[in-house]
Design brief:
Elements lengths: L1 E3 L2 H13 L4 E6 L5 H12 L3 E6 L19 H11 L3 E3 L3 H4 L18 H4 L3 H16 L3 E5 L3 H13 L5 E5 L19 H6 L1 H15 L5 H13 L4 E10 L13 E10 L2 E10 L4
Parallel strand pairs: 1-4, 2-3, 2-5, 3-4, 5-6
Antiparallel strand pairs: 7-8, 8-9
Helix pairs in contact: 6-7, 9-10
The structure holds pantoate.
């Protein structure tokens, strides 16, 4: 496994692999790797790709009052996970390497960046789309892997790739959950023991929504109302940013539940903001 710190060196390694007839798989991450990331990496490795994992805590996707400074950076553990899973190259650039000279060119995926997390994290998806566009241009992968847990991010990146004709395929992999349902996230490590227990309210609210849809409930308001009640029972809950019932591809709100529906939640447990979602097919009972 090679560790590349510059754009030039990662490009050289990728060009050499491509010369050997390899397909390139990219797993973009901000490090603090957990089982969710491992599942993305395994998917690329098992597909036989020359697998590049980027580890970059992207400053442009954090708001001024967000957790950029305290975001975990356990690079040694990350490198070990990459080595153990059979990664070929880990790309670990500095912010200077990625944003040298400042950036005046941004990628804005309109409309889809506005609802849900976009309302509470202005500029977040502009930062995500821009850094992913850069990583796609730097690494030039055949395929890139994202987690379903960040449903809005995955939908936005897919749309950006389609709209800007990036020659790569986006694969979205299932959310990996703890035994009690909590979606794995690098931010779970901010939770105290009690908060960690209470955080299961998020998955429980989603599972209740799925039950309701499977039982034929069609009104998003009824579904969201029930979910909110479940969330509000958790003692450590400090707020619900949103409960959304939307089209999984366009993120447009649904007036009436039908076909594939994305149910998404962002809730605050103590001072930690967690997100999760489920896609439910209302036409399949
Ligand atoms: O999902 C993440 O970890 C980040 O948003 C990503 C895709 C690596 C871009 O910085």
């Amino acid at each position: 496994m090679k560790v590349a710190r510059t754009i030039k060196s990662v490009r050289q390694l990728v060009i050499a692999a491509r010369g050997n007839g390899e397909k390139i798989g990219l797993v973009p991450t901000m490090g603090a790797l957990h089982e969710g990331h491992r599942s993305l990496i395994m998917r690329s490795v098992k597909a036989g790709n020359f697998t590049v994992v980027s580890v970059f805590v992207n400053p442009t996707q954090f708001g001024p009052r967000e957790d950029f400074n305290k975001y975990p950076r356990p690079i040694r553990d990350d490198l070990k996970i990459c080595r153990d899973t059979g990664v070929n190259v880990v790309f670990v650039p500095t912010a200077k390497e990625i944003y040298s000279g400042g950036t005046v060119t941004w990628v804005e995926v309109e409309k889809m960046s506005k609802p849900m997390c976009g309302q509470f994290r202005p500029g977040h998806f502009r930062g995500v789309a821009t850094v992913c566009a850069k990583l796609f241009n730097i690494v030039q992968p055949d395929v890139a892997y994202f987690g379903q847990k960040d449903a809005q991010q995955a939908a936005i990146i897919k749309r950006m790739v389609a709209d800007l004709n990036f020659p790569l395929k986006i694969v979205v992999c299932p959310t990996v959950r703890a035994a009690d349902g909590l979606a794995l996230s690098s931010r779970n490590r901010y939770l105290s023991t009690q908060q960690r227990r209470d955080a299961t309210c998020i998955y429980r609210s989603l599972a209740a929504a799925r039950e309701m849809i499977k039982a034929g409930v069609k009104a998003p308001k009824t579904i969201a109302g029930r979910m909110r009640k479940i969330l509000e029972k958790a003692g450590s809950l400090t707020g619900v940013d949103y409960i959304s019932v939307v089209n999984p591809d366009t993120l447009e709100e649904m007036k009436h539940v039908e076909g594939k529906v994305l149910i998404a939640v962002a809730a605050r447990i103590g001072s930690t903001r967690l997100i999760d979602n489920l896609i439910v097919d209302a036409d399949r009972r």
